[in-house]
Amino acid sequence: MPGWADLMAKPNTVQHSNAVATAWQLTEQVPHGRELGMQVVSVDQGQVCMRLTPQSWMFSQEDTKEICTSVLYSLADSAGGLAVFAGALELMPIATLDLRMDYLRPAGGDQALLAVATCRHLTDEVAFIHCDILSEGNRELLATANATFMRNTQGQQFHAGGRERESA
Length: 168
Known about the structure:
Layout (H helix, E strand, L loop, with lengths): L3 H5 L10 H11 L1 H6 L2 E6 L2 E6 L16 H20 L5 E10 L9 E10 L3 E10 L4 E12 L4 E4 L2 E4 L3
Antiparallel strand pairs: 1-2, 2-4, 3-6, 4-5, 5-6, 7-8
Protein name: PaaI family thioesterase
GO molecular function, one term: hydrolase activity
EC number: 3.1.2.-
């Protein structure tokens, strides 16, 4: 299996026929997503669906079955990042610039979560993403997120003493 750096070094490698496999490989290379148990369900025309099965250690308190909001935040960020690739149809280094979530209701730990992230607009430097997080069993909307991602972040290094430009 190629590593994250190997996949990033090969632009224009996302194909509709193997987009889910590529997204799965990217997800497997990120330890945080792997440890949370995030799974890629689908990738289609700028939209990604990811699934997360709650674990008891994700609950905000031991006596509740409400999932900690930071888990939803991580799920939205991961699905949003993959939606950037699905919208651009190429792999490139990206960075989350902003992610705002509106929590509509608590996420119960008795059903899996689905994150459906859609690439709304792309420029050469920025991707704009919308993500809905739902409860899988009843498709109840739990949270919405809007995010911006910087595209093509490789090539510029920032240092404490100022900014230096390095070629990629």
